[in-house]
Design a protein that fits this description.
By secondary structure, this protein is of the alpha/beta class. The protein has a single domain (2-216), classed as NAD(P)-binding Rossmann-like Domain (Rossmann fold, 3-Layer(aba) Sandwich). The protein has helices spanning 11-22, 34-48, 60-64, 79-86, 119-127, 142-146, 163-175, 189-206; strands spanning 2-6, 26-31, 55-59, 69-72, 95-98, 103-104, 107-111, 132-135, 156-160, 180-182.
């Protein structure tokens, strides 16, 4: 499978490309600057210990051609412009995975929110309702993505309006080494994207090493469980 990583020459793009290649697929690293994409294509495989033939370099426009899935990993400040630049080269059968979070590239503890309320919603608005847009990988660190041989310290939240696209993405995410949870339609994206700042704050303030969000059930051995009788007067 060919997977485009649009704006893939940053840390998050490098991490997504690593997970794509670790799953056995081809990661086409896209950039507005082809030379930057070529440099990462050359340096990333030995850095993460994966075969070089699983990585390609291209411009953003060329990267999305013939790709089954397109990951949007651009900074918040360039999100709309990059989407507009590739829109005419996408088709409505591709799954567009929006990874951009409302992080200010100049100050990671500050947020930049789009008018649409979330970057997932902005992607859907720019591309149009006919495109299959799913928000995902918003709350996982690039460090965790790059360390593809380690057990993940987080789960992946996804949201979007097309149920079939989300189900397909969940299967792909499992092959990329993570458990994915569908948290609803695009209107759930602000909640999901807002968690990114929380995780970054914990990293800075408490020196937590790349914290992540992981869901766990209560132990089946729990003996004290909620019971409405607790609020009923005993005679």
């Amino acid at each position: 499978m060919r997977c485009a990583v649009v704006g893939g020459t940053g840390w998050q793009g490098a991490g997504i490309a690593t997970r794509i290649a670790a799953a056995g697929w081809t990661a086409v690293i896209g950039s507005r600057d082809l030379e930057k994409a070529k440099i990462l294509q050359e340096n990333l495989p030995p850095f993460v210990g994966l075969p070089a033939e699983r990585f390609e370099a291209a411009t953003n426009v060329d990267a999305v051609k013939d790709a089954e899935v397109v990951f949007i990993t651009v900074p918040s400040t360039g999100h709309r412009a990059v989407l507009q630049s590739i829109k005419d080269h996408l088709d409505d059968e591709q799954i567009i995975v929006d990874v951009t979070a409302p992080v200010d590239p100049e100050n990671h503890l500050s947020e930049i929110w789009p008018e649409d309320g979330s970057y997932t919603a902005e992607a859907q608005e720019v591309l149009g309702d006919e495109f299959l847009v799913v928000g995902a990988f918003k709350n996982v660190s690039a460090t965790m993505l790059l360390n593809h041989t380690m057990p993940p310290n987080c789960d992946i939240l996804i949201c979007g309006d097309d149920l079939e696209a989300k189900h397909q993405l969940q299967l792909w995410i499992k092959q990329m080494g993570f458990q994915a949870y569908d948290i609803g339609k695009v209107d759930a994206a602000p909640t999901m994207e807002g968690l990114t700042k929380l995780l970054i704050f914990l990293n800075y303030a408490y020196h937590l090493n790349q914290p992540g969000i992981k869901f766990q059930e209560l132990s089946p051995g729990m003996q004290i469980l909620p019971d409405d009788d607790l609020f009923v007067k005993k005679s």
